[in-house]
Amino acid sequence: MDLGLKDRVAIVAASSQGLGKAVARGLAAEGVKLALCARGEEELRRTASEIPSEVIAEVVDVTVASQVSRFVDTVLRTFGRIDICVTNAGGPPAKKFDETSVEDWRSAVDLTFMSTVYFARAVLPQMKEQRWGRLIAISSVAVLQPVDGLILSNAARSAMRGLVKSLSNEYAPHNVLVNNVCPGFTATERLKKLNVHPEAQIPMGRVAMPEEFANLVVFLASERASYITGVSIPVDGGWTKAL
């Protein structure tokens, strides 16, 4: 299937490793020009060098609005347009409520919610003007079904679901589609850090590979997803019990 993505321009945040890197590789395979960002310069440069596509890469802290804005300006100067923006950030630490501080909550909201707001503010006006765009948020199945011991992620990421639905309604008349992709347990470094072994809880009996998650993001970014907007889709092997 031709996804109609050749020569489109995409921003992929937190793309030096894990889910972001898998998404970047998936888009590159479809001929997309890429703008990658992450906080770790060494891994970011390594990832950029591995991708067989036209790529720019810049160190960005997505919790800082001015850095996101400057990065978006750089992408527009380099490529002249932005068609796709995939927002992404690492998850907050695993904690129960009585272990959290006020600062933990502020950091979680900045990392998982405000970073998406910053990218939306920076890219949506241009997408609206060109009457074509895809804003795709990467969140977590925690927005659909809370995960024990991850109260910061459960709460802060859930705000993204409301943001995505609201933005999708506002921008649909301008052919700008806004969706939320919700990874379940996936074979990334974060899963290793959580030190959990959820295979028995997953109907498919295994965790996902990052490429399996990326496949959905690439489809939603494409011409073939032209009537899909405002949804939060789990990629979890059936783990989520109710939507």
What can you see in these coordinates?
It is a single chain. With 243 residues, the protein is an alpha/beta fold. The chain has a single domain, classed as 3-Layer(aba) Sandwich (Rossmann fold), CATH 3.40.50.720. Helices cover 43% and strands 16% of the residues. It has 7 helices and 7 strands, in the order E-H-E-H-E-H-E-H-E-H-E-H-H-E. Helix 2 links the parallel strand 2 and strand 3 (55-59). Helix 3 packs parallel to helix 4 (102-130) and helix 4 runs parallel beside helix 5 (151-171). The two termini are 29 Å apart.
Summarize the topology.
Layout: E1 9-13, H1 18-29, E2 33-38, H2 41-50, E3 55-59, H3 65-79, E4 84-87, H4 102-130, E5 133-138, H5 151-171, E6 176-183, H6 189-194, H7 210-220, E7 232-235
Helix pairs in contact: 1-7, 3-4, 4-5
Strand content: 15-25%
Regarding CATH, which class?
Answer: Alpha Beta
How many beta-strand segments?
A: 7
Tally the structural domains.
1
